[in-house]
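Students often ask why we bother predicting the structure of a whole assembly rather than each chain alone. The short answer is interfaces. A chain on its own may look different once its partners are present, and contacts between molecules only exist in the joint model. In this exercise we take two input lines together and write out one structure for the complete complex. Read the inputs first and try to guess which parts will touch.
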Amino acid sequence: AQSVTQPDIHITVSEGASLELRCNYSYGATPYLFWYVQSPGQGLQLLLKYFSGDTLVQGIKGFEAEFKRSQSSFNLRKPSVHWSDAAEYFCAVGPISGGYNKLIFGAGTRLAVHP
Amino acid sequence: KAGVTQTPRYLIKTRGQQVTLSCSPISGHRSVSWYQQTPGQGLQFLFEYFSETQRNKGNFPGRFSGRQFSNSRSEMNVSTLELGDSALYLCASGLATSGVIQETQYFGPGTRLLVL
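Now the answer. The structure tokens for the assembled complex follow.
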């Protein structure tokens, strides 16, 4: 079945530590890939996206993600976390066969940052 | 450039009522999509509109409907509200480039609906 998995529901890191949020997908063909962030009571803000080309993509706020076709993964990374990064992070895929602009989201990973 | 705007931001209704939510896309964007976010089901795609036509639809009952106007603004309607319809409803807009199936979507702040 087609799915998007974010294995970690909740992650806590110390400020200044590195971060990696995992995302795996299960689709027949490589879909379009996105990471969004949601602060409490807010909508979704796009961090970065992968459509094709270089498998390491840079985003806003110092985030990057690496697409690994062999592992069907699109993990989000940040070398040094800031307290303001505390939020919920969603991986999303846009299946090529899913029709226009349909995004399938993972369940999200809630990030807490300790001072 | 202004972002996606949604009105109202908060809404309280009772079971059996109907509700209409509004979304104004980013200027120049012609595609509007709607999503429902609940703690139990997460983020789920409702439907997508372009040029006043629904191009894509998720797995929601017919009580959920939408429309798009000639200025690309969109509304979604939920009739005969149920307790389970309590959710954050998010609208997203995209450019709708000709021939492109999947584009980057930019989300609004959402409308939080509470059904009592």
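Check your guess against this: The first strand of chain B starts at residue 5 and ends at 7.
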